[in-house]
Amino acid sequence: MKLERITIENFRQYFGKQRVDFAKDEQKRVTVIHGINGAGKTSFFLAINWCLYGKGVDNVKVIDNVGELMSKEAAYQAVAGETVRTSVDLSFLHNGERYLVRRVLQGIKQEDGTVRVEDSDSFTMMRTKADGQAERINNPVGTMNSILPVNVREYFLFDGEKIDNFAKPEAASQVKQAIYLVLKLEILERSRRHLEAVAADYRKELKNKSGQELRELLEQEEKARAEIKKVKERTFELNQEKESAENKVADIDKRLREMENTNTLQQQRDRIERELKQRRTEMEEVVSIVRDLATSGYFVVAQPAIKKAILLLEGKRARGEIPSNFRQQFIKDLLDKMICVCGRPFADGSEEHRALLAKISHGLPDALQDEALNTCAVLQAFEQRTEKNKVDVDSAMRRRAELVDIIRSLEAELDDVSRQLKGSPLEEISKLERNREAFQADIQDFMLEKGTLKEREDKFAKQIVDLKKEIDRARREEKREVLLSTKLDLAQRAADAIGEMYQTFADDMREKIQEKTKEIFKKLIWKESHFQDVKLGQDFNLEVIDRYGYSARPELSAGERQVLSLSFIMAMSRTSDDEAPLVMDTPFGRLSSNHRNAIAEHLPVLADQLVLFVTDEELRDEARQNLESRIGAEYRLEFSPRTSCTEIVEVR
Amino acid sequence: MHKDRLNNLFESFDPAIRNIVLGVLDIEQEHISMEKPRVKDHINDIISVAAKKEVEKLAEEECS
Predict the structure, then answer these.
(1) Which residues of chain A are within 8 Å of residue B25 when distances are taken between CB atoms?
(2) Which of A371, A381, A385, A382 is nearest to A316 (CA)?
(3) pTM for the full predicted model
(4) How far is residue B38 from each of residues A195, A429, A495, measured CA to CA in Å?
(5) Spatial CA neighbour of A37 closest among A627, A619, A613
(6) Mean pLDDT over all residues of chain A?
(7) Measured between alpha carbons, how far is A419 from A407 in angstroms, rounded to an integer?
(8) What ipTM describes this predicted complex?
(9) In chain B, what residues touch A505 (CB-CB under 8 Å)?
(10) Cα distance between residue A512 and residue A519, in whole Å
(11) Distance from the CA of A517 to the CA of which of A1, A252, B14, B40 falls in 20 to 30 A?
């Protein structure tokens, strides 16, 4: 992140629109903003923070206890009902793309002179790509978190007088927190924790599923298919046996037809059997007709209701209510004009008036009249159909009864023929007929078994259809199970990978920061020969070792603590490798000239971009000279006691 | 870039694992300002995409 430009409008003591261009060249990367105490350095610093993060993001407070953000002068000059607007625009470069962020707060000037400020400000972020196309970013907070997160901000945009905190003996947790956030250890730790949680969810879900189900269903399907195969094989055998028995019967019939003594009886049997076959076919047709009539005879049940409805509608027709002699609209027109059918006018409440009103109230609307007439016709057709249906059913049932009698009689005739043949004095004839009877009995048994087998086959076929549906469902479930199991494996391995690398990475980072802090501290501290080493222990305690090998931190002066903290922050910034500006409010406040001089000399080299808010006293003499060649932009904040407003004046 | 350093850190791992880790790190970075971010759904999405690819790869290997 490299700051380009800021435009401040009606923010605290900055009245109207004022603009500052930040230095960002490789050589001249320092922007100096001068101001005496109370001129508006901290307000300017707040404007940058407010623009990027508002008053706070989620649980992190950015601006707290600083009074009104809106310019009092702007509020004062506005007339009642006018909108007062406070805004800060900030443009910056990040990863080769230009961003423009804008935060606006608006309020309406009231009659009593106060400004009713809106509950929340509006924040927009635009990104301009290399091809010049600008796009609005839909998730500005998330994007800011990726560029410079709010909780990392305080290590890059800070009040110079307060940074000595890191060097205080009790600051180990703060140091740890800073390293965690700036060097993304916090992100690694959160990633591992959340991946573990997701893996635990997958594991729980997987436990509730059973992989056995599909295997069991497939076994059931296999069994059903084996049963059907058996049934088909047995049916084939039965068909062959039945055919063989039928052939035997046909042979016997032929033999009986050829024999003189039995010829007549056999011919009689042939005729009876032909007729029996014909009647049985007719019987099947009649049964089918009865079944059809019965299933479509639902309206027979509704017959009493239909009859009642027809009577009701016919009654209305008989009384002349439908269709009425007059259309409703015609009567309404007469009532509107207050004239009789004959054209004579009538008075309100007169006999004619009452008669017409009665016709309106007893009559039906025109559309409903048409509907009622149509319904009447439809219901009459229904009634006719009901009658015909009853006649057809009666006729079919009568024929069925006749056929039952005929078939029974023909069967009796066949029995009689068979009895005569069995009772023949000739042994051969009697034997032939007994054999025929046995074969016929076999055929009947085969038919019975075939029927049972068909039922069994249908049962297993239906079972297979149902099983197929279940198997498809279980297959889909199993696929999901495989996917879930893969997800679990990946989530757990990813969490383990982070866990495995975390400590290595953390140790590496800690050592790098330790080395860098030592290197920078030695450059900035004027007693560099007195301080031998800087240590950042496993417990994240920042320690300075003196030439005697003793811990020197408790003895550090406030200025030395500030230098140590600054060294630590710079070390983190260098180690993180993320390009970020260093914006410091009153950086040299507590420092003596030798520290100021060293910082002014080395800081511009260590930071990618430096913005310093300083008093005139802070930056003078050698410190000023050391910084001079790096200053690319310089401004002066001029506070006017007359207007209580600050003007930003460009110095260079 | 610090991000490159993180990429390198997971270079020795299976590409599927590396992609998941880097994807999750991005999500966490976007939500770093939240104390209790709701990132489970995002993480699940990243893992689901990777898992589908893994299952397809496995099926192709079985076929060939």
Answers:
(1) 184, 187-188, 191
(2) A371
(3) 0.61
(4) 13, 98, 18
(5) A613
(6) 88
(7) 18
(8) 0.95
(9) 6, 9
(10) 11
(11) A1
